[in-house]
Amino acid sequence: MPLTVLSPVAGTVVAVTDVPDPVFAEQMVGPGVGVEPADGVVVAPVDGRVVSLHPHAFVVQAADGAVLVHLGIDTVQLGGAGFDVRTTVGDDVTAGQPLVAWDPPAVRAGGRATVCPVVVLEADPAALVVLAAPGSVVAPGDPLLRVG
């Protein structure tokens, strides 16, 4: 069954190859896209269970795949400062449910990229269908990509 991934943030879609981190740009962990955020609200991209959680990144395990959302690049270096996590590991979440709040302008001011990679872990890149083309403006919950 195909997995449809919704945008976790409002913003502008960026090709994954343009994400300024080789782990994401080269799809080492899986295929996906990036979204340059317009604000700091981050929602669940799929229905599922939170299986990994850090202030700057989380993974939601859905019935048909696991989706990683990473908030910015090199934001692990912030040690959680500026992130308000509103879920815990093991929580069942619904697509569109707020999970994290953060301050992209403050992250940018600190010299870090704020693009948010949205990746289907260990999926076949050939099975990825991008539903929102690079340059498209999306709202949280808009269809972003599909796998399968």
From TrEMBL:
Entry EC number(s): 2.7.1.-
Cell location: Cytoplasm
Annotated signal sequence range: none
GO MF: kinase activity
Main enzyme class: transferase
Gene Ontology cellular-component terms listed: cytoplasm
Domain PTS EIIA type-1: 21-122
Keyword check for Kinase: yes
Alphabetic keyword roster: Kinase, Phosphotransferase system, Sugar transport, Transferase, Transport
A GO biological-process term: phosphoenolpyruvate-dependent sugar phosphotransferase system
PANTHER family: PTS SYSTEM GLUCOSE-SPECIFIC EIIA COMPONENT
Protein's name according to its UniProt entry: Glucose-specific phosphotransferase enzyme IIA component
Organism: Isoptericola dokdonensis DS-3
